[in-house]
Design a protein that fits this description.
Length: 390
Amino acid sequence: MTATRNNKYLAFALCVITTSVNIQGPLYAIYAQNDGYGVLATTIAFSLYVLGVIPVLLAFGGLSDKIGRKKTILISLGLSIAATALMMFYPYTRALAVARLLLGVGTALMAATATAYMIELIGSSDTAHATTWVTASTTIGFGLGPALTTVSLLAYESSQPASFFILLACAFLSMFLVWQLPETSPKQLNKVSMLKLPYFNREVIWYGGGILICWATTGLVLSIIPSVLATHGLAKYAGISSMLAISCGLLFQPIARKLDPKVSSKLGIMILLPAYTLLAWGALHANLPAILLAAFAASSSCYGFVYLGGLSGVTRSAGKEQARASAGYFLMAYMGFSVPVIFTGLIVDRYGAAVAFYAFGLFLLLGALILFASGSILQVNQARFEPKNL
């Protein structure tokens, strides 16, 4: 019973941390209007999140070994609180850039700690069970934030929506709950260096490539689609599209768990291409039902099959380097979450949305072709990826 309570407390904390990441999403157009900036400025501010993520994943992957798992999660929660409070009192794109940087640091600390902490709290050698808890709670959180803000804005339009107050209350509650969790990091590890570079093998690179193009699509939905919708007077629905693009993937994770990780990832990539085609068409023609349907389909790909399949494949292939391999996987994911999105925002401002969507579609197609052509690199280690009966 205690173990079940502990993993629920940790899962709640992971959900709160990831909820804070995208809770400002539906307000991006308002922040840009307040500053008089365009789409490029918004995408740059959005992508500063990754400037917080990458240094932590590269250089501070061993922080939880040094100071403890619990303290690391508490720091991440504190950064979520600080970022949300900043946006409440200073609703501008400049503040968004700082908030996204803080959220990136907090999310990276969480990503480098969560899976290992969950495995230790559960106390089982079955990493799939712990991975399921982590992917489910973070998938819900990433999509819950914009959905809460959208509902709040539909009830009462404000740059300080009720969703921000709800999140802050939940974050303080979560800090209290996490404080009660046991510290699972062995004491002798407290003497090790914080510097732990991500671990890469062929599986991490291949699965990381899959999540890279998927999270690039998610970043497009979160940062650029709101501005496109705003030009058609549909800005208030941006949060719904963001929620559909992330949290609905949870519905497909039970199917993904029954599949070989490689099969799950390839299936997700096959779904991603037509989903993006529909998304681009809907955005260019201001067709809201098409956008929402495409966001739902993209979610099944990105946060259903590819996210869970990739993380499972990476952790099974890494042996004792699971934490470092997870850091490498998320490093590639967040590279996709930022670099392609920034270039797409630049193209939108200079050449228009149509050219930008075509260019991004070409990027996805090339990425998918490379992954399918290089899938044979996993065959050598195929024995390690036999699906388990869950």
